[in-house]
Design goal:
By secondary structure, this protein is α/β, with parallel strands linked by helices. It folds into two domains: 229 residues, Response regulator (Rossmann fold, 3-Layer(aba) Sandwich); 167 residues, Rossmann fold, CATH 3.40.50.2300. The chain is 39% helix and 21% strand. It has 13 helices and 17 strands. The strands form four sheets. The protein has a seven-stranded mixed β-sheet with strand order 9-8-10-11-12-16-17, sandwiched between helices. The chain has a five-stranded parallel β-sheet with strand order 4-1-5-6-7, with helices on both faces. It has a three-stranded antiparallel β-sheet with strand order 13-14-15. Helix 8 links the parallel strand 10 and strand 11. Helix 5 runs parallel beside helix 6 and helix 11 packs across helix 12. The protein starts with a helix and ends in an 11-residue tail after the last helix.
């Protein structure tokens, strides 16, 4: 991109981010902002997921800035999210990383693809070794392939979401007690995360429910299937009583829609079935049949949780913007805490503090495990129900349907062993 055009684009992008909501400072920071590069699909099939993440991160920065920003020895500095569109492509993500580093940003965040996260980790490792005076950090809010904090673990990478095996174990806590279930269909996106989900599902089913028959085991191209009816037909013909999937975004919404149209009336055990269109698509047919696992749900019991959700909805009142995740708020709080303790933005110093971060937002807590940089927090499993039913005060995206928490897994129980052999600078 031509240098002048690039500068104009960056100014417009910054204006857009700031335009999402005026930043209000309790003690107006006068220093340059602490810049964070969001590398994500902000266009294309998964553009809606990227924009949903952007809202969460912007809201997190607004809350930090309203409290006076990041306190450093030279003075308080505001946080600023700068957007870099990966367009759902790994090569574009690597180009965005190079652009962000060239622009002087040393904090990178990404999460909506484990394959993208893997190439970013590798590229950041190499960059930091080559250029120790320009090292960068990678904060991961959603890429949950277990390998990223196991054999691919990196001192520069920190994951704030529970990885796929942790989520699967939480789902299996509920599936284990579903004694009527005898036949299940496994389907997922054909890339590292989707493969990991199906692999762990088969392992856990064999251990915990050997009586359950796997009647389908299928991977499909990611973000390229427009019509899921052939898959839905196979699910129905298999006699499956439930589908287990790690699908997200349009791949999940279209799968659920096709299954409903094909007449499938079984359950969906999902990682992400509680958002981005699924409840609205299923309607009444989803009551009691869509199960999801997450670190937090809008109907998580407690006044602090309710206050957290209502605060977000006041900020983003449109039904289509109803996508909020506690872990992204905890991630930003952990970053701020670590920068302030380090007293500098230098990546290694911040990473050293981030390894031992322990944070709380609206009374909801989490802590980083230094050994592998896997964040530890409660996990919850919830089931879809009609708004107004017991435990369902809030619906999802104005659909009239929400999720009732049926099981909470404490951090000590959600924790999984790791195989990370961390190399520190």
């Amino acid at each position: 991109m031509h240098l002048l055009s690039k500068q104009i684009f960056k100014c417009l992008a910054a204006s857009l981010i700031l335009g999402i909501g005026a930043l209000v400072f309790a003690q107006a920071p006068t220093q340059p902002p602490v810049r964070i590069a969001l590398i994500e699909s902000l266009s294309g099939p998964f553009g809606n997921t990227g924009e949903a993440v952007l809202r969460n991160l912007v809201w997190a920065t607004e809350r930090v800035n309203a409290g006076g920003g990041v306190k450093l020895p030279a003075g308080a500095r505001p946080l600023l999210i700068e957007r870099y569109d990966s367009k759902g492509q790994n090569e574009e993500a690597l180009a965005a990383l190079r652009s962000a580093i060239d622009d002087g940003v040393n904090i990178i965040t990404q999460g909506n693809s484990s394959s993208t996260a893997a190439v970013l980790i590798d590229a950041i490792n190499k960059h930091n070794e080559r250029e120790p005076t320009r090292r960068v950090l990678f904060l991961n809010y959603s890429a949950v392939d277990p390998s990223l904090t196991n054999e691919k673990c990196s001192f520069w990478h920190f994951r704030f979401d529970a990885h796929a095996d942790m989520r699967m174990a939480a789902l299996m806590d509920v599936l284990h007690d579903d004694k009527a279930l005898k036949r299940i269909y496994l389907i997922g996106q054909d890339y590292s995360f989707g493969q990991a989900v199906l692999r762990e599902a088969k392992k856990q089913l064999a251990l915990q429910r050997p009586d359950v028959q796997v009647v389908g085991d299928e991977l499909h191209p990611m973000a390229r299937v427009k019509d899921f009816m052939p898959y839905a037909a196979k699910i129905r013909q298999s006699g499956a009583q439930a589908v287990l999937t790690g699908n997200f975004g349009n791949d999940l919404t279209l799968l659920v829609k096709a299954a409903k149209e094909a007449g499938f009336d079984g359950k969906f055990y999902t990682f992400y079935g509680n958002a981005l269109g699924v409840p609205g698509v299923l309607g009444e047919a989803g009551i009691g049949k869509v199960i999801a696992v997450a670190d937090w749900f809008a109907n998580t019991p407690g006044l602090d949780s309710e206050r957290f959700y209502q605060s977000f909805r006041q900020r983003f009142p449109k039904p289509q913007d109803d996508y909020v995740h506690m872990r992204m708020q905890l991630m930003m709080q952990a970053l701020v805490q670590s920068i302030e303790k380090a007293g500098t933005l230098e990546a290694a110093a911040v990473a050293t503090q981030l390894e031992n971060a322990s944070v709380s937002v609206f009374g909801l807590k989490g802590a980083m495990r230094a050994a592998d940089h896997q964040f530890q927090q409660p996990l919850r499993v919830a089931v879809m129900d009609k708004q107004g039913a017991p435990g369902v005060k809030f619906d999802v995206e104005g659909s009239g349907y929400g999720f009732r928490v049926i099981k909470t897994i404490a951090p000590a129980r959600a924790e999984q062993p790791h195989s990370c052999k961390m190399t520190r600078p």
